[in-house]
Every structure is written in structure tokens, then in C-alpha cells.
Amino acid sequence: MTSPELELDGLRRRYGTVTALDGLTFGVPAGQVFGFLGPNGAGKTTTMRAIFGVAALDAGEIRWRSRPVGEAARRTFGYMPEERGLYPAMELFDQVEYFALLHGMDAPAAASAAKHWIDRLGLSGREGTRIDALSHGNQQRAQLAVALVHDPELLVLDEPFSGLDPGGIDDMSSILRERAAAGVTVLFSSHQLDLVEDICEAVAIIHHGRLVVSGPVAELRRGDRPRLAVRVSGDTAAAWAAGLGETSGTVDAVRADGTAEISITSSADSQAILDRARAAGTVEHFAYEDRSLSEVFRRATGASVGQAEAEHAAASMASGVTTGARR
Ligand SMILES: Nc1ncnc2c1ncn2[C@@H]1O[C@H](COP(=O)(O)OP(=O)(O)OP(=O)(O)O)[C@@H](O)[C@H]1O
Q: Whole-model pTM?
């Protein structure tokens, strides 16, 4: 893996009796789309706010290209905060151009960049619309335009997909990929793990303010112990798999159709497992399969992903924010 461009090192933050960050450490490699995951309250927003100096740290250091992050570096970063920081009464074009000027661009460059990103985000024709007259999804697009307008080297987005329709999700995904391909380091949080699985090269999963797992998505899905999925015709309880331990296989779960999900040690003899299944009946399915990112998350945090998503949806409804559901 490439060496990290953004390093979060031993971050600690308490709010009264609540420990938001408890020694959080991980790195984000250059030019990747990197997913930042964790259950509600894990510390993701606090971390992102700390990168921008909006949340103070009790301890720890954030480094960009091996140097502690300061205001000069932050001017080269783009941020899409969870609370969305646009001026409701300002017109779209003025808003985007204003942020470009704030980041030090001269007037012609700011106007041209504002036009470029408004067009790229499918908002052309709405340049004179007030922010508060835009739909929720279009406000998200406007917020992304603001984060991108000064061509940042690091892009940090707090739940950028929440509330977007399928077209908005596709546009957001392709822009994040495109920016990463152009060398930008992209860090974003999301609870939509199937989406994260599709677009991220690597992820960090945090829980209670600490890192629990990080690495390339493909490696995490493969895991230390490969998974075999095996189904024997008519055996919906996968009774054939009883006693598999002798072959170094462990049945993790049995699906409704009788497919046994078997974790095996690398030294396990998959042929011995196949022989055992064939001895019990017709083998309808026998294949190595990667785990889903949802399962990796569930195992890492000890939480049901369904529960995490439900909690997030409830929290979003309470705050009046719509949660985007991908399926
Ligand atoms: N300003 C604050 N004052 C008091 N407590 C706070 C503050 N900000 C965050 N916390 C607490 O710190 C913990 C981490 O919160 P944070 O918002 O960083 O989590 P998160 O991972 O972004 O959660 P979510 O997925 O729900 O957005 C939570 O327990 C939260 O209540």
C-alpha cells in the first residue's frame, strides 16, 4: 500500500464524560477514495471536524504529507460538513464563487471555477436561485461544488450520499472517483456500506473512538480465513456440514436456502469438504466467496448493520434530515 498522505495519530477528545475519540490512529493513502465507517456516535464527525480545526483535540496529531496540519494546509483541503454550511439567502452562483474567493482564487478564476462546478454538478440554469429554494438533493450538490471549487488536494465529506436520489448517488460517486483519479485524496463517511463497497479502495472502521479495522476493501472482504459457500440439494439445515471441524472448516452461518458459509484455514483441504458434501447428496453450489463489507463491519463492531442503519435513519428523521437508502 502507498504510504499515507493524511495521518491521524493518537487522536483523543472528550466531551464531559463522553469519550468521542480514544486514541484514534490510521492513515489515508494518496489518491484513493477512502471510506470512513463506524456506528452512530463512533467519532467520525469529530475526526473530520478536527482535520479542519473546527473541533479541538485533547491529544494527538493530524499530519498532511508528514507535516502537522495548519491553516496553510487546510486552505488546500475541501470539506463537505454534515451540518452543511451554506448561506440560505445567497444565490447559488454567488455562493460557490464566494467560497472560491475565500480560498484565495482571483476573481476571474473564481467565476470560471464556479461555472465549471455548477455545470458539472448538473445545476446549470439555477445560478440565480437562492440556496434555500433549492431541493435538499440540489443543496447537497451545491455543497459539493463549494467543497470542490478551489481544486482541493484533500477532499473530506461527511455523509455526502445521505438524502441523494439514485441519479445524485451516481453523480457523487463518479465525481469522487474522478477526483481520486486526478490525484486527490478523498475521505468520506457513510452508513451505506454497499455503496462504500462499490466505490472505495480502502476503508477504516472505527468504534468508540478507536480504530478497529482498516485496509483495502478487497483484502478485508477476503479476510484471514477464506469462505466457502456450499449447498447440498434438499438439505436446508446443512446437516451434512456437522463435524466439519475435522477438515479445518467452521460453519459461520446457514442461509435460508441451505447454503453453508464455511470459514476455512488456509491449510484446510477444500477437496475433503467437497467429498463430505458429495457423500451427503447432490452438490448444487461450491464456491469461494468474499464477505460483504456489511459483514466485515458487523464483525468488527459487534453490531448488526441493520441496527446501525435503523439507528442512523431514526437519528436523521429526528434532525429533519432525509436518509438516502440505496436499496
Ligand atoms: N459538541 C459536542 N458536545 C458533546 N458531545 C459531543 C459533541 N460532538 C460529539 N459529541 C459526542 O461524541 C461522540 C462522537 O460523535 P460523532 O458525531 O463524532 O460521531 P459519528 O461517528 O459522526 O456519528 P454519526 O454516525 O451518528 O454521525 C458521540 O457520543 C457524540 O454524542
A: 0.85
Q: What is the Å distance from ligand 1's center to 20 Cα?
A: 6
Question: Phi and psi dihedrals of 216, rounded to 5?
Answer: -60, 140
**How far away, in angstroms, is 11 Cα from ligand 1 center?**
14
With 0-12 CB in 10 A as exposed, 13-18 as middle and 19+ as buried, what is 202?
A: buried
- Residues 145-161 pLDDT 10s: 999 999 999 999 999 99
Q: For ligand 1, atom 13, which residue shows the shortest CA distance?
A: 20
Residue 218 CA, ligand 1 centroid: distance in Å: 29
Amino acid in position 262: I
State the DSSP code for 240.
G
Classify 249 as helix, strand or coil: strand
Q: What is the pLDDT of residues 11-36, one digit of tens each?
A: 999 999 999 999 999 999 999 999 99
Residue to mutate, 12, 13, 15, ligand 1, most ligand atoms under 8 Å from C-beta: 15
Cα distances from 310 to residues 150, 281, 306, in angstroms, run: 36, 40, 6
Closest residue by Cα to atom 12, ligand 1, is 20
Q: Output the ligand 1 site: residues, CB below 6 A.
A: 15, 18, 20, 38, 40-46, 315
Residue pair 206/20 in contact by the 8 Å Cβ criterion: no
**Whose Cα sits closest to atom 6 in ligand 1?**
15
Q: Which of 11, 21, 45, 319 to mutate to test the pocket of ligand 1 (most atoms within 8 A of CB)?
A: 45
Which ipTM score applies to this complex?
0.97
Q: What is the DSSP string of 27-92?
A: EEETT-EEEEE-STTSSHHHHHHHHTTSS--SEEEEEETTEE--HHHHTTEEEE-TT----TTSBH
pLDDT over 70 percentage in the chain = 91
Q: Mind listing the domains of the chain with CATH numbers?
A: 4-221 (3.40.50.300), 224-289 (3.30.70)
Pairwise CA distance, residues 273 & 280, whole Å:
11
Residue with cell 464455511: 262
